[in-house]
Amino acid sequence: MSIRPFRDIKRKKTKKIKVGKVEVGGGSPITVQSMTNTLTTNVSKTIKQINELTEAGADIVRVSCPDKESSLALKNIVKKIDVPIVADIHFHYKRAIEAATSGADCLRINPGNIGSKEKIREILKAARDNNCSIRIGINAGSLEKSLLEKYKEPCPEALVESAINNIKLLEDENFFNFKISVKSSDVFLSIKAYRILSSVCDYPLHLGITEAGTQTSGSIKSSIGIGALLLEGIGDTIRVSLSANPVEEIKVGYEILKSLNLRSRGIKIISCPSCARQAFPVIDTVKILEEKLSHIREPITLSIIGCVVNGPGEAAQTQVGLTGGGRGNHMMYLSGLPHRKVASRKIIEEVVTLVESKAKEIKTN
User: Fold this and answer.
1) Are 208 and 226 in contact (CB under 8 A)?
2) Which of 28, 210, 246, 268 could form a disulfide with 23 if both were Cys (CB 3.0 to 4.6 A apart)?
3) How far is the C-alpha of 190 from the C-alpha of 139, rounded, in Å?
4) Could you write out the DSSP letters of every residue in 176-235?
5) What are 138-158's pLDDT values in tens digits?
6) Considering the entire predicted model, what is its pTM?
7) At 154, is the secondary structure helix, strand, or coil?
8) Is residue 20 within 8 Å of residue 229, measured between CB atoms?
9) Is the dihedral of CA 165, 222, 83, 13 positive or negative?
10) 282-292 and 347-364 helices, crossing angle to 10°
């Protein structure tokens, strides 16, 4: 059983590109990205973090290449991973060329600091020769000087003009395998810039609120900014930027998509905040279950409600449900229907068993 959304989001149709084996745009599932924070020259640590991100659900991972040693290290990194790699390039165009020849699947270049048109042409040749896509990454914090002089400050119009100028540059070179981002740490600026850009081009858009902040504040800002755009059908791939373990970015990214019924992966928990009516410790129970069920990859809805006020109603809409009852006897639900009673001491065991059984059933079918 699954919840039928009250409103299906109609996504804007964009061009489709490929980042390695992953499709972006053109109606493909919205992908979730993150970025490593290890020294790329530390190959073993970088591989370890990429694999952790992949296990968490990352579709694409970006790796910083600030020097020649880093871009060349990609040769050894790509052999040990199973996810497309985007090489993050700033200032030095030769790093982009080295990254492309070292196995990167995509090059993220920043027009505000990458250099002349001639250098960009060299990057495009390397990308074309190595079947490498491009992300035009426009940031409010690093706009071209000419645009800052024209607009006096970063603004949506400046970000979009930068994007359009660079789209033309790539198109003039007959290069079309690219996506675009127009990011800012300001939610309103970002939303307006993406809205304008979406209205004037049909290339895939990479969404994000850059430098969003800590895990809590950054998750909220990203959810508002990215979520608002996704609700309007704008966006083909997302990256939540947090000053936290990159794995948390993947978790938040999927929660945004799950909340909008745009993509399902793993457990979607519906739980109450608890009150004096709770018949078992809801908060502690949910915390334990979230950890014990973190290995589940199949999309499953689970409701954990402390009392009978909303418990039966929520359980009727989820695949597995638990409603608190009197005298330590609580009701388990399966596919929206009462299943059996469970004692307080056996809640964790029973829920885990039912969820794992449901996951196996989904996987088999």
Assistant:
1) yes
2) 28
3) 10
4) --EEEEEE-SSHHHHHHHHHHHHHH--S-BEE--TT--SHHHHHHHHHHHHHHHHHTT--
5) 999 888 889 999 999 999 999
6) 0.91
7) coil
8) no
9) negative
10) 40
Give yes or no for residue 7 having a pLDDT over 70.
Answer: no
Sign of CA dihedral 119, 122, 127, 128: positive
Instruction: Give the DSSP letter of residue 3.
Output: P
Q: Count other C-beta atoms under 10 Å from residue 265's C-beta.
A: 18
The answer to whether the beta carbons of residues 207 and 235 sit under 8 Å apart is: yes
Total Cβ atoms within 10 A of residue 47: 18
Residues contacting 49, CB < 8 A, separation 6+:
36, 37, 38, 246
At 279, is the secondary structure helix, strand, or coil?
coil
Give the span between the Cα atoms of 310 and 321, in whole angstroms. 11
**β-pair partners for 135:** 108, 179
Pairing, β 60-64 against β 85-89: parallel
**Sheet containing 178-183: which strands, arranged edge to edge?**
178-183, 133-139, 106-109, 85-89, 60-64, 31-35, 237-239, 206-207
Task: Decide the pairing of beta strands 320-323 and 300-305.
Answer: parallel
Alpha helix segments (H runs only) across 281-332: 282-292, 311-315
Strands 337-343 and 300-305: unpaired
pLDDT at 114: 83
Q: C-alpha distances in angstroms, 209 versus 51, 61, 246, 363?
A: 24, 17, 15, 35
Phi and psi angles of residue 180, each rounded to the nearest 5 degrees, phi first: -140, 150
Cβ(170)–Cβ(180) under 8 Å? no
Neighbours of 354 (CB within 10 A): 22
Q: How far is CA 106 from CA 101, 131, 176, 242, in A?
A: 11, 9, 13, 22
Mean pLDDT of all residues in the chain?
94
Q: Give the pLDDT score at 1.
A: 39
Look at the block and give the residue holding tokens 């493909």.
28
